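Hi W.,

Here's what went into the run:
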Amino acid sequence: MSCEKINFILDAKQSEELTPAERQAVERHFASCAECRDVWGAYRELVALSVPSTPPDLRARIMVTLAARPAAAGWGLRRSFVIGAVLVAGAAAATLAFRLVDRTAEDESRSVEATAPAASPRATVEPEPDSASVAPAATPVRVGESPPQRAAPNAAGYPLDRHSVVVIAVPDPAADSETAAALATCHEVVLEHIRAVDGLNIIAEERLAPFAGSTLSETEVARALGAGSVLTLRSAEREPSCSARLIGVEDVLPATGLLVFLDPAWTQERWQSFAAGLAGRVGQVLLSDPATLRGQAQADILNTALSDAERVSALPRLRVAAPLAPQTFDESVIAAAIQIGMTSRDAEARAAVWTWLRGVEDKGVVPPLMYALANDPVARVRAQAVRALGGFLAEPGVREALLRAAAEDADDQPTVTCCIPTVRESARIALRGDLTPHDAVRSAALDESLAPRERLLFLSPQGLIMRLDAFDADVARAVFALGSAAEDPGLRARAWGLLADVREPDFKAPLIVDLAQHPAENVRTAAARGLRQLRDDPEVRAALERALNDSSADVQRIARASLDGVGPGFGF
Amino acid sequence: MSDAVRRFNALIEPHLHALFRAAYRLARNRADAEDLVQEACMRAYGCIFQLTDAEPVAGWLLRVLHNVFVDGVRHARRSPIVNAGSTLIDASASPEPNPEDVACRTQREEQLHGAWLKLERGHRALLALRAEGYSLTEIAMITGLEMDVLNARLYRARQSFARHLKEEPVSPRLRMEIAK
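Here's what came out:
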């Protein structure tokens, strides 16, 4: 009998379970094969090692530890938001990101989702990948180069351990070597730091090898491994960069947070700082309850020993409890934030301060905002200041300052087609700040004197916060027309995503075509989302089912969610 | 007593013994085994309300334990489990018939422990679970490995263990015992 056969028999059964014939065959083989004899002899010695009885006080000690631990359940819904918000904080901590402004603006839209009155029962948060900020996931998860294997299912339906985090780097196959190297470094450094977070259980590298080449999504991989969270690392398209996204596996559409940075002068020290910040945030999200997070955030912003970026990163964490409500930061927090906004040499920190002070009712922020709008040399800082001023149109001089900025600010050419407003556009958006959000959105969407881009900016989560089904049919038709005319993939995706809350069969044709064949992944994803309300239509259903085989995991995931009728519309 | 603690008592406590045995097989010393069990219980407590009475709690707990061990939460904190130089004989192991046997077995056990500690954690986990009597199907469920991958890894784990055991130095005392 061959070694293989012997191993098969011995693997399948414990030695006492062998039949007499099997036992004889094994003994005969052992007599002639020294290697098998050694291997199995060693193993049997191992099996024979004694195991002591369970210590009688073990249970008591566990109970003492449990008693000191906060309640086990009760904030699951909230957590999906916390993940988003806190990772944004991570972005600010890492600071560098020249795209931080876009990120913070977009992430604010996600915070909106968590509290939007008409949101679906799950407080899910899903950013729209757009060409400006998120690397498209052009391929399914690939952890290595081995041939595909079927993944082990979570067949027993066990609850997932949310402290177990699968960390996956998803390389872009089209990336150049510099981009690939940046992602590899990111992966390595993040793993080093996140593994040091006490209480988190990190699943990565060789433990993911069985899924190499698998077409499973990240969350399916995590589910198969019993992990409740996934941290994915990607590079932005054709850029040396690293974005991190933490996903709660149990959410139908994952809660996400995102970091993007792009900096050719990235040093080892900055990598370390980035990874440490990220690991800390992930640890906080998964291990702390919201009250603890808030306390830590308050302490952080007041801590002058930290860098400006680190201090500002505390602001979004303070908004976690009620991102849309008028903000009630302590005076000390507002004072600290203003001081950073006025004096920091770090433009990203200044921009982030004004972003996160939006919604604050304290009129003391108006003079610093006016000063920043008039004097800050960096456009994205002025754009954030101007948006925050939209909440104070009744204050003396504010409206005039916004009108001046809308007409005269040096920043009037968008650098990214979708959807980062220039300072002039931001001022025009802010000038509608005294309308109700509903009226502001409606008036902008129907205002044909505005450029299509600006009309969609209003309707996007970066503008005002409304679901499209909160408006009359004219607004939906305007969005549809804007999307149909848009050649820019980002704008087109914006429009299609907005339609997710609208049930209008006349809109389906271009969405079905885009879902099947648009070259841009974000447009296909948005089309899948936009067809959600029409999922009972056989033609739409067939299109969504075909999209389950799309080459993009994101498109597949959103198509599945739309077929099931779950998930938010376009980020809100 | 809170609901969570009540549920913990009802659902998890009955499996503490099995959990400790598996943990001991993994760690090969009592203190680390207790830590592993405690950590797994903390995790389980974190989602105690998601468990229903009908679910196979034991398997799930073992998976949590396995993850804790393999992925090294403890490894980050302190790492006696990989401290190959230490002597990890448990003084409370089953009663021994006579001192000579004890001495002999302890020496051999030291070798076994030495070889054990040189195995990578994933291999240790598979061998420990198998040695504890879990079936391949159960181990596949616990580890999330495909059956064919599991078979291959178990095989490699056994080979590595045998190789390490061969390379493990024999102490003078054991050589004397063998000579006798």
